[in-house]
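Example record

The entry below shows one chain as it appears in the dataset: sequence first, then structure tokens.
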Amino acid sequence: MRKTLDALYTSSAWLAALSMVGVLAMVLLSIVGRLLHFHVPGTDAYAGYAMAGAGFLALAHTLKSNEHIRVTLVIGRLRGAARRALELWSLTVAVLLAGLLAAYAWRLAWQSHQFHDISMGSDATPLWIPQILMGVGTTVLLIALLDEWVLEWRGLRPHPQTGTRHE
């Protein structure tokens, strides 16, 4: 199971990296178009979609790499059961919020599909297509937070600051 979860987080990070390459490609295409006096419609919109996709798809891998910013003013001073209780409470709240975010992201994509919502730009992209990246990213983040919650509950989660586990 651990290999499968780690592969999911890594795959999501690779998709985020590909999205960043998409941003680069759209920006370069726009620059070259200006220099050579041609216009490709939608490059700004597609760069934006790719940037949003990169941000959402990178969330889970960033969490699992302990790269999210944590405010440790209180939790850094706690030890033992008090620290574990606060970690579990924080992760529980994070799981609930990520679950809501994922549900609403998928709901938004579904509603955009149902209403045939398209972008306002000249490209007229169906908005549910780029919104799927937000749904996927938030769902993988939810899975990563659940993974962290289970590891914390079992006492196997390393502390991001010290690298030690609860015993």
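Notes for this example: Residues 80-114 form the longest helix (35 residues). The mean pLDDT is 92.
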